[in-house]
Amino acid sequence: MLLALLNTRGWSEGKWRTLIEEGKEYDVIGVCETGWHDSIEWDEGGWVGIGRGRKVGEKKGGGAGILMKEKAGRTIEEINPTRDIENQLGYNKGDIVTVKVREQKEVWWVTVVYMGVEGRGNQEDNRKLFEAMLEIKEKVGRDKWVIMGDMNGHIGLMEERVNRNGELLLDFSEKSGCRIKNWESENPTTWRDRNNESAIDYILVNESVNRQGCRIWKNEDVDISDHSMIGITCGKHREENNAKKVIWKEKWDVKNANWIEYCRGMENTMPGDTEGIGSTVSEWEQGIKNVIRQEAKKAIGTKQFKIGKTRLKGWWDKEVGQAIRDRKKENRKQKSVAKLARLQGGRYEEEWREAWDRYQEAKKRAQSLVWKKIGMWEEEQA
């Protein structure tokens, strides 16, 4: 099982389509998003999702969701006791969701939580969220359980001072027996802006998951947010996927066809009778098919696609893909120079500012192109 987490900082069509395109190798993606309201149900591009957000008018809390890639034999269901527990604790702001993902004989409980930022106003709410998760633990039993979320807490990673949220997280880890996987990360940074960085997004697993030898990773190529995507790989997911045979099929490339050349070719090569093709109807029919196929290959051509591959329909095309690759390239450059600037300063600071500006320009170009393509696609559908 391959699970990931991202605080998306916005849920526009461009963002979620980019997310599922970038996450096509994952099984489950946990999402933290304050823009959600009430209950969220989602079904698009081979993914289904369940989420919750704060009530309309509520300024605090919300939202948490879980996206699951559709697969034969795999199901997802929200766990209603989560809401019962919240009501029991007197807390219901939509910033925690728990689902059961069933696949063959395995049952995975996945909880996504969004903690409030450090401060007296959120301290009691955050405490209740951890209490809710302790209640969920009792229902999980010996099943597998993964907890993911933006917890706005510091637990001592990157030499950061432990704050109240961090104390609550460490205390929960001890009481629940869940392991904080971030301790195993070589680069624990999960949030970064122009001048600061921190570790505030976390993944915890219970013993049933940890004994599978799961490992934590970070994918900074998914750059649709100032948070980094983190995740865990459990079991033999990657090894099994790499071992799978890739099956390709061909189809006619009608979008780039030269129809004039095709018509001329058919006129010059199509026989007028059965002479030279065959003496029976079936032989003549097969001969005609061969002529059509030969001329089509010359003037129309074919293209290949993977069987079972989820292809995003609509506005996503090669131009959008290239713009996003360019954005990623500039993002990697500015991050590399930013590290040198922090360590050595001097000329690297100016070089980093220039790299940052180039990244922002590439980011704006990609976003503008996305909205342009969406608009054109919607006009075609009208």
UniProtKB/TrEMBL annotation:
One of its GO terms (molecular function) is catalytic activity. Coiled coil: none annotated. Residues 125-230 form the Endonuclease/exonuclease/phosphatase domain. InterPro entries: Endo/exonu/phosph_ase_sf, Endo/exonuclease/phosphatase. Transmembrane segments: none annotated. Gene3D superfamilies: Endonuclease/exonuclease/phosphatase. Pfam families: Exo_endo_phos_2 (PF14529). This is Endonuclease/exonuclease/phosphatase domain-containing protein. It comes from Chionoecetes opilio.
